[in-house]
Amino acid sequence: MSTHSGIHRFPAIPACMAGPSNPDGPSGPSSPSEPAGPSNPSGMPDGGRDTEILIEDEVREPRMFRVLLHNDDYTTMEFVVSILVEVFRRTPDEATRIMLAVHEKGVGECGVYTAEVAETKVALVHARARREGYPLRCTLEEV
């Protein structure tokens, strides 16, 4: 699994909200490092300028899932091919090859997708199969 680093920029916390930073302690003298006045109207050590903090985030690839069709004794080969073409966007030749794998091996891989796409395709297959009266079973497994 590959990772990418991204840099996000967030504004710095103003000194007045950052908490005590007085090296003499809470009871010692406190004075800003820059005097308040025309050149520093805010009285803040950084003069009220926006500073930035760089934070690196690790971006991960999404988890991938294999969608599988399972053989049964009732669903027609033609219906399985139509599901593969319409739901999984397979060519008729690819769909026929996958359908034969389902028929001969008991299971066939329709494709590999992100979790949300895989779940949606499984739901579409089940809805179409039930509407047409077939017990076709479709599952997903993490790659």
What does the model show?
- The protein is an alpha+beta fold.
- It has 2 domains: 3-60, no CATH class; 64-142, 2-Layer Sandwich (Ribosomal Protein L30, Chain: A), CATH 3.30.1390.
- Helices cover 29% and strands 27% of the residues.
- The protein has 3 helices and 5 strands.
- The strands form 2 sheets. A 3-stranded antiparallel sheet has the order 4-3-5. It has a two-stranded antiparallel sheet with strand order 1-2.
- Helix 1 (77-86) crosses helix 2.
- The protein is rod-shaped and about 85 Å long.
- The model has no long low-confidence stretch (mean pLDDT 81).
Task: Spell out the key features of this protein.
143 residues; Ribosomal Protein L30, Chain: A; 3-stranded antiparallel sheet; two-stranded antiparallel sheet; 3 helices; 5 strands; rod-shaped
CATH class of the largest domain: Alpha Beta
How would you sum up the major sheet?
3 strands, antiparallel
Global outline: rod-shaped
Strand tally is 5
User: Architecture of the largest domain, CATH level 2?
Assistant: 2-Layer Sandwich
Q: How many structural domains can be distinguished in the coordinates?
A: 2
Uncertain regions spanning at least 5 consecutive residues: none
Radius of gyration using CA atoms only: 31 Å
Helix content: 25-40%
Overall pLDDT, averaged? 81
Q: In what range is the share of β-strand residues?
A: 25-35%
The CATH H-level homologous superfamily of the largest domain:
Ribosomal protein L7/L12, C-terminal domain/Adaptor protein ClpS
Order of helices and strands: EEEHHEHE
Distance between termini? Answer: 11 Å
